[in-house]
Amino acid sequence: MEFLLENILNLVGFLVGLAIGIMSFVGFRNTGSPTLFRLTIAFFSISIGFFVIWSGYMLEDYVIKSGSIDRGIQTLGIVIQTVGYFFIAFSHSIKAFFPKSNYFRSIGILPFFLVSTVQLEHIFRSISFILLVYGAIETILSYRDNKNKGAVSVALGLGLLAFGEFLGWYSFVFPESILYSISMTIKIAGLVALFIPVSKVPLKRIKFDDDLDKI
Amino acid sequence: MAEYRTQMKIIGDILSTTRDDLQDEDGATVTYLIRKANISHSRISTILKTLVSQGLLEQADTQGSNRYKISQSGREFLQAYHSFSKFADNFGLNI
User: Fold this and answer.
1) What pLDDT does residue A115 have?
2) What percent of chain B shows pLDDT beyond 90?
3) Which ipTM was obtained for this model?
4) In this protein, which residues make up the domain named ArnR1-like winged helix-turn-helix (chain B) (predicted)?
5) What is the distance between the alpha carbons of residues B60 and A135, in angstroms, rounded to a whole number?
6) How far B31 CA lies from chain A's nearest CA (Å)?
7) Whether pLDDT at A108 is above 70
């Protein structure tokens, strides 16, 4: 059951990320907007991250057949997804994400070399959770200004992804319980909520124009 | 408090004015665009130069003053701008 849900989640994540990434890229090519460029990087990263994990599961299912996915592949996929979530949050102008002190900047990366891939996975899941919550709050706050119902759906999507991430992490406390399956179902619902408003944007008759991206 | 406008939003406002809100068929003067788009003279001069060089605006010298009209490329750009503004709005962002 978990294996099937993982496959559905990662495939849906790959497709939703790819679709929104392509829309953002077309927008960037047509308008030259830096915001759309950041969204392009964000959603292509999210898409690639889900694809890497999905490939890991496929590889395990049809080739390796060891009973569990390689932790390295899983961690790599999560790291790439975290980069995507960072760019969504970054689009909302994170100003104080990195420490200002050069000392803290230089030693800040050290813990990543001192822990195993399993611990790394937890660290990046935690970072993803924080970035997703930040993105969800900023998006719902924007609803006050533009009254755009799509923003509510995107905020709900990011919120559900964050909640799913939290439950996924919490399920390590109660292994073999239904928590992990619930977390994946919530994440799938989050991805669908993320895609609904984007799919309604009218993008007909828009074509690439090489001269326009110099603005 | 005044609303912060990105460079893209200012360009959108200028192009929208030259498309929907012209004084006459000859096009809009710089003074008219400054008033409508609410922007300083030095800033609009740079933007207008860029928009003309990119082919989004057409410049004509009528009655001793420069006038600006939107081109076909400008109309297409404006359409894309409005569509992708809605797209970015969904994420709570301005393009």
Assistant:
1) 59
2) 21
3) 0.78
4) 5-86
5) 46
6) 23
7) no
The verdict on a CB contact (< 8 Å) between B93 and A150 is no
Sorted by sequence, the CB contacts under 8 Å of residue B23 that are 6+ apart come out as B29, B32
CB burial class (10 A; 0-12, 13-18, 19+) of residue B16?
A: middle
| CB nearest B90 (choices: A35, A151, A212) | A151
A36 vs A23: CA distance, rounded Å = 9
> Taking chain A, what is the end-to-end CA distance rounded to the nearest angstrom?
50
Pairwise CA distance, residues A38 & A47, whole Å = 14
| DSSP-derived secondary structure letter, B4 | P
What's the start-to-end Cα distance of chain B, in Å?
20
A214 vs B90: CB contact, 8 Å cut-off?
Answer: no
* Domains present along chain B, CATH in parentheses: 7-90 (1.10.10.10)
**Which is higher by pLDDT, B31 or A173?**
B31
Cβ pair A161, A189 in contact under 8 A: no
User: Please, which residues bridge with residue B57 across strands?
Assistant: B70
Q: Helices A34-59 and B72-89 sit at what angle, rounded to 10 degrees? A: 60
- Nearest-neighbour CA in chain B from A83: distance (Å): 17
Structure tokens at A198: 């984007």
Question: Is A215 near chain B, with CB under 8 Å?
Answer: yes
CB B94 within 8 A of CB B84: no
Q: 3-class secondary structure for chain A?
A: CHHHHHHHHHHHHHHHHHHHHHHHHHHHHHHCCHHHHHHHHHHHHHHHHHHHHHHHHHHHHHHHCCCCCCHHHHHHHHHHHHHHHHHHHHHCCCCCCCCCCHHHHHHHCHHHHCCCHHHHHHHHHHHHHHHHHHHHHHHHHHHHHHCCHHHHHHHHHHHHHHHHHHHHHHCCCCCCCCHHHHHHHHHHHHHHHHHHHHHCCCCCCCCCCHHHHHC
Of B72 and A146, the one with more pLDDT:
B72
